[in-house]
Amino acid sequence: MRKLDRAFYDRDAQLVARDLLGRYLVHRVGGLERVGRIVEVEAYLGPHDLAAHSSKGLTPRTRVMFGAPGHAYVYLIYGMHHCVNVVTEAEGRASAVLLRALEPVSHLEGRTQGPGLLCKAMGLDLRHNGADLLGDDLYVAEALPMPPLRIVRRPRIGVDYAGHWARRLLRFYIRDNRWVSKP
DNA sequence: TGAGTGATGCAG
DNA sequence: TGCATCACTCAT
User: Membrane-crossing residues (predicted)?
Assistant: First the structure.
């Protein structure tokens, strides 16, 4: 499978979010290839987006989000779950796309419906924070040929604190796909 | 609907 | 320093 290049990520976060749907997240670990088809994502637009971590400004935690596109931003939430994002747009824009659910393809353990379960199934944790998605261990691959997708837009999950930003339609998923976390 | 869990960021 | 908060999940 062909790896997506830097230019793919160096675009508007909403475009990247939509285009990630149907493509494959790959994690090579212990000689095994863990693969899942991306079926649900959320876009976080940058420091002006009050739901985005980067709205707190440049901190040790958000450093990766402010960095170059095509890197993984992984963080720990509620003391037990990990979430993985891909950094988008030019360095400093601090936008990213959260991966929320996968359709299992190979070597995934357990459920993949939800950002925490996704990371658990893929074996992703804080060690992967800042990982370059153009490396050989963790990347997103083309789906060829790419079938036409029916994409649904909804408000993002769990960001009610963000005022009107909580109502923006920045969550995208593949319609009628059984692996979506909250249809 | 509420508990569990610990890093994070801000107030002091 | 201390404390409220949190892009979640699972059992009631």
Answer: none
